[in-house]
Amino acid sequence: MRMTLCALVAAGVLAGCASGPGAAPAPPGEIPSAPTAPTTDWSTASYRFTLDSTCGERLFLGTFHVTVEDGKVTLVEPEAPIPEVPTIADLLQRAQADGLAAPSAFHLDPTTGVPTVVEFEGDPNAIDDEECYAVSDYEPLG
């Protein structure tokens, strides 16, 4: 999974270099590449999104509307039963993990660079450590 994510990031970076402002158009008969996700510094970004937490035996289950300003969660509606609600930066960072901490499922919106599905199985012999997140309604602020 990590190799796939790294390949996607590398492909996006390379495609971005070839298709930036002032890049030569595709030769006749060649289809231009699909748009790549914008480069966003998620550690300092400001945005809103909806986070659905749907599995595992944890307190943090349900649908939460999250506002992040300058990379920090500033509002969660309804109030979350945990102090640390994951941001997009947190989910992307955790998607880089190896071994049992690696995601069991990961889907990224190629247009926005926002993960849409992130699932962690954890220890396959444990019955209570799963985490399943779906991200929707992403909206950049300001």
Give a brief description.
With 142 residues, the protein is an alpha+beta fold.
Report on the structure:
By secondary structure, the protein is of the alpha+beta class. It has one domain (40-140). 17% of the residues lie in helices and 30% in strands. It contains two helices and six strands; from the N terminus they run αβββαβββ. It has helices at 2-18, 88-94; strands at 47-53, 62-69, 72-77, 103-108, 115-120, 131-140. It has a six-stranded antiparallel sheet, covered by helices on one side. The radius of gyration is 17 Å and the shape is globular.
Q: Approximately how much beta-strand content do the residues carry?
A: 25-35%
Tell me the span between the first and last alpha carbons: 33 Å
Cα radius of gyration in angstroms: 17 Å
Basic shape: globular
Strand order of the largest sheet: 3-2-1-6-5-4
User: Would you report the number of β strands?
Assistant: 6
Count of DSSP-assigned helices: 2
Taking pLDDT < 50 over at least 5 consecutive residues as the criterion, the unreliable ranges are 1-26, 31-35
Helix and strand string, N-terminal first? HEEEHEEE
Chain-averaged pLDDT = 80
**In which range does the helix fraction lie?**
10-25%
What is the makeup of the main sheet?
6 strands, antiparallel
How many separate domains?
1
